[in-house]
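no rush on this but wanted to send it before i forget. theres a chain ive been looking at and ive put its sequence and its fold in C-alpha coordinate form underneath. please have a look and point out which stretches look like helix strand or loop to you. thanks a lot i owe you, the record is right below:
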Amino acid sequence: MAIYKTVLLGIIAYFIGSFSLSYLITRKLIGKDIRNIGVKNAGALNVFLNLGLSQALLVGVTDCLKTLLIVVVGQAWGLDAVHTIIAASFGIIGHCFPIYYQFSGGRGAASTIGIFIYFIPLELFISLIPSALIGFRIKRLGMTPILFIALAPIIAYIHHQPDSLVFATMYITLLMGTINIILKKRIT
Protein backbone atom coordinates (compact mmCIF):
# COMPACT_ATOMS: atom_id res chain seq x y z
CA MET A 1 0.00 0.00 0.00
CA ALA A 2 2.91 2.38 0.74
CA ILE A 3 4.12 2.07 -2.86
CA TYR A 4 0.75 3.17 -4.26
CA LYS A 5 0.61 6.14 -1.90
CA THR A 6 4.21 7.04 -2.78
CA VAL A 7 3.52 6.92 -6.52
CA LEU A 8 0.30 8.95 -6.20
CA LEU A 9 1.96 11.50 -3.93
CA GLY A 10 4.98 11.67 -6.26
CA ILE A 11 2.72 12.51 -9.21
CA ILE A 12 0.93 15.19 -7.18
CA ALA A 13 4.31 16.51 -5.99
CA TYR A 14 5.56 16.86 -9.56
CA PHE A 15 2.58 18.99 -10.57
CA ILE A 16 2.77 21.13 -7.42
CA GLY A 17 6.53 21.49 -7.85
CA SER A 18 5.98 22.65 -11.44
CA PHE A 19 4.19 25.79 -10.24
CA SER A 20 6.65 28.71 -10.59
CA LEU A 21 5.93 31.82 -8.56
CA SER A 22 9.26 33.30 -9.71
CA TYR A 23 8.05 33.19 -13.32
CA LEU A 24 4.68 34.74 -12.46
CA ILE A 25 6.08 37.51 -10.24
CA THR A 26 8.72 38.51 -12.76
CA ARG A 27 6.21 38.56 -15.61
CA LYS A 28 3.84 40.70 -13.52
CA LEU A 29 6.41 43.16 -12.13
CA ILE A 30 8.83 43.70 -15.03
CA GLY A 31 7.19 41.93 -17.96
CA LYS A 32 10.11 39.55 -18.51
CA ASP A 33 10.67 35.81 -18.30
CA ILE A 34 12.95 35.17 -15.27
CA ARG A 35 14.49 32.26 -17.16
CA ASN A 36 15.90 34.65 -19.77
CA ILE A 37 17.55 37.18 -17.44
CA GLY A 38 20.31 37.09 -14.84
CA VAL A 39 21.51 33.55 -14.20
CA LYS A 40 18.73 32.24 -16.44
CA ASN A 41 16.72 30.09 -14.05
CA ALA A 42 13.43 30.38 -12.21
CA GLY A 43 14.86 30.31 -8.70
CA ALA A 44 14.83 32.56 -5.67
CA LEU A 45 18.46 33.64 -6.16
CA ASN A 46 17.74 34.89 -9.67
CA VAL A 47 14.65 36.72 -8.39
CA PHE A 48 16.83 38.33 -5.69
CA LEU A 49 19.40 39.44 -8.25
CA ASN A 50 16.78 40.91 -10.59
CA LEU A 51 13.83 41.99 -8.42
CA GLY A 52 15.02 42.30 -4.85
CA LEU A 53 14.94 40.70 -1.43
CA SER A 54 11.21 40.77 -0.64
CA GLN A 55 10.24 39.07 -3.90
CA ALA A 56 13.07 36.55 -3.51
CA LEU A 57 11.93 35.68 0.03
CA LEU A 58 8.37 35.16 -1.19
CA VAL A 59 9.60 32.91 -4.00
CA GLY A 60 12.00 30.99 -1.74
CA VAL A 61 9.38 30.37 0.94
CA THR A 62 6.83 29.28 -1.67
CA ASP A 63 9.33 26.91 -3.30
CA CYS A 64 10.14 25.48 0.12
CA LEU A 65 6.46 25.06 1.00
CA LYS A 66 5.80 23.07 -2.19
CA THR A 67 7.80 20.09 -0.96
CA LEU A 68 7.05 20.65 2.72
CA LEU A 69 3.35 20.27 1.90
CA ILE A 70 4.06 16.94 0.21
CA VAL A 71 6.09 15.80 3.22
CA VAL A 72 3.29 16.71 5.64
CA VAL A 73 0.72 14.88 3.48
CA GLY A 74 3.00 11.84 3.22
CA GLN A 75 3.46 11.70 6.96
CA ALA A 76 -0.30 12.19 7.53
CA TRP A 77 -0.96 9.28 5.15
CA GLY A 78 1.29 7.12 7.32
CA LEU A 79 4.22 6.86 4.92
CA ASP A 80 7.63 6.35 6.47
CA ALA A 81 10.39 8.91 5.98
CA VAL A 82 11.95 7.14 3.00
CA HIS A 83 8.70 6.85 1.01
CA THR A 84 7.79 10.43 1.90
CA ILE A 85 11.18 11.75 0.78
CA ILE A 86 10.99 9.81 -2.47
CA ALA A 87 7.52 11.25 -3.18
CA ALA A 88 8.62 14.78 -2.24
CA SER A 89 11.68 14.49 -4.48
CA PHE A 90 9.30 14.66 -7.43
CA GLY A 91 8.40 18.15 -6.23
CA ILE A 92 12.06 19.06 -6.72
CA ILE A 93 12.03 17.49 -10.17
CA GLY A 94 8.87 19.46 -10.98
CA HIS A 95 10.51 22.66 -9.79
CA CYS A 96 13.56 22.08 -11.97
CA PHE A 97 11.69 20.67 -14.99
CA PRO A 98 8.18 22.18 -14.75
CA ILE A 99 5.57 20.86 -17.14
CA TYR A 100 3.81 24.24 -17.21
CA TYR A 101 6.93 26.14 -18.37
CA GLN A 102 8.50 23.98 -21.09
CA PHE A 103 10.54 22.00 -18.53
CA SER A 104 12.74 25.00 -17.71
CA GLY A 105 12.74 25.93 -14.02
CA GLY A 106 14.97 26.60 -11.04
CA ARG A 107 17.83 24.67 -9.46
CA GLY A 108 15.78 23.20 -6.59
CA ALA A 109 17.58 24.45 -3.48
CA ALA A 110 14.52 25.93 -1.77
CA SER A 111 12.49 22.84 -2.66
CA THR A 112 15.17 20.72 -1.02
CA ILE A 113 14.96 22.85 2.11
CA GLY A 114 11.26 21.96 2.32
CA ILE A 115 12.21 18.30 2.76
CA PHE A 116 15.25 18.82 4.97
CA ILE A 117 13.50 21.28 7.29
CA TYR A 118 10.97 18.62 8.24
CA PHE A 119 13.26 15.62 8.65
CA ILE A 120 16.64 17.10 9.63
CA PRO A 121 16.03 20.70 10.73
CA LEU A 122 18.97 20.95 13.14
CA GLU A 123 21.37 19.44 10.65
CA LEU A 124 20.06 21.79 7.96
CA PHE A 125 20.61 24.82 10.20
CA ILE A 126 24.11 23.65 11.14
CA SER A 127 25.00 23.08 7.48
CA LEU A 128 23.76 26.54 6.45
CA ILE A 129 26.30 28.33 8.65
CA PRO A 130 29.54 27.00 7.10
CA SER A 131 27.94 26.99 3.64
CA ALA A 132 27.07 30.68 3.85
CA LEU A 133 30.49 31.53 5.28
CA ILE A 134 32.24 29.69 2.45
CA GLY A 135 29.94 31.35 -0.11
CA PHE A 136 30.78 34.79 1.29
CA ARG A 137 34.47 33.98 1.51
CA ILE A 138 34.78 32.84 -2.09
CA LYS A 139 32.36 35.58 -3.22
CA ARG A 140 29.97 33.06 -4.78
CA LEU A 141 26.76 32.95 -2.76
CA GLY A 142 25.28 30.75 -5.47
CA MET A 143 27.47 27.94 -4.11
CA THR A 144 25.76 28.05 -0.71
CA PRO A 145 22.84 25.77 -1.70
CA ILE A 146 25.19 23.19 -3.19
CA LEU A 147 27.24 23.15 0.00
CA PHE A 148 24.35 22.88 2.48
CA ILE A 149 22.60 20.20 0.42
CA ALA A 150 25.81 18.17 0.51
CA LEU A 151 26.62 18.86 4.18
CA ALA A 152 23.20 18.28 5.76
CA PRO A 153 23.12 14.47 5.24
CA ILE A 154 26.70 14.20 6.50
CA ILE A 155 25.78 16.12 9.63
CA ALA A 156 22.68 13.91 10.00
CA TYR A 157 24.98 10.89 9.94
CA ILE A 158 27.29 12.45 12.53
CA HIS A 159 24.23 13.18 14.73
CA HIS A 160 23.27 9.50 14.56
CA GLN A 161 20.04 9.97 12.65
CA PRO A 162 18.55 6.65 11.48
CA ASP A 163 20.44 5.14 8.56
CA SER A 164 17.31 5.08 6.40
CA LEU A 165 16.88 8.84 6.88
CA VAL A 166 20.55 9.53 6.17
CA PHE A 167 20.40 7.46 2.96
CA ALA A 168 17.14 9.12 1.90
CA THR A 169 18.64 12.59 2.34
CA MET A 170 21.76 11.43 0.49
CA TYR A 171 19.44 10.38 -2.34
CA ILE A 172 18.19 13.99 -2.42
CA THR A 173 21.80 15.21 -2.53
CA LEU A 174 22.62 12.91 -5.45
CA LEU A 175 19.39 13.88 -7.21
CA MET A 176 20.21 17.58 -6.83
CA GLY A 177 23.75 17.03 -8.08
CA THR A 178 22.51 15.18 -11.14
CA ILE A 179 19.81 17.76 -11.88
CA ASN A 180 22.26 20.64 -11.56
CA ILE A 181 24.74 18.94 -13.90
CA ILE A 182 21.93 18.59 -16.45
CA LEU A 183 20.86 22.20 -15.93
CA LYS A 184 24.45 23.46 -16.22
CA LYS A 185 24.85 21.68 -19.57
CA ARG A 186 21.51 23.09 -20.74
CA ILE A 187 22.57 26.69 -19.96
CA THR A 188 26.07 26.46 -21.47
User: Anything to note?
Assistant: Residues 2-187 form one domain. The mean pLDDT is 91. The two ends are 43 Å apart (CA to CA).
